[in-house]
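Sequence, structure tokens passed on for absentees:
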Amino acid sequence: MFRTAFAALSTAVLLSATPILAQETVEPVFGEYLQPLGLGPFQDATWTGYEQEGWFVLQNTTQPTAIRYYEMPLMNADGTLTLRANVYARNDDGEGVAATGLLYDFGDEYSTYIAFLLTADNQLMAINRDVEEMDVIYGDADDPVGRGDGSDVLEVRISGTQARMYLNDQHFRNYDLSHRPFHDRAGIIAVGTGRLGFWGLSAQ
């Protein structure tokens, strides 16, 4: 059951049209948590990226179906990975979806992935983008919610073909990744319009 009708409607709007995808491949980031991403400022037809007091912010004011992500090879040789990022999402105009989070199981051939995101209204969502479709899961009423003050930490703990997702150390969902070849690439993702911020990314 979706947390709100608005959330379901917003996602329907996002997925009813072909998403405008922008992908960047960047260097791997391993090591301690809250390591700055070091991504430089840029501007294209849809997105503006900039640094603000240590945050890397992606801003989109025009395209409600826009998705931008940065991916990199991050899996450890033993098939385990803990992926973390400090995130926030602001929806300046109150329309559509604004969400930010982690990307994993990224398949370069067809741009398939699983995303774990926090929305501007502090709800959790997960997107499974397969070869043919995008499946979206929202949190239920008893799932964790974000604080919205910039202190929210998203985490994905991957071991073998199991991925467990957490917000501020509170469990959200598990994904069984055995239904298709698991890919070793992961990163960050921004969805929709608004200001979508990342403090840092760690992969351990």
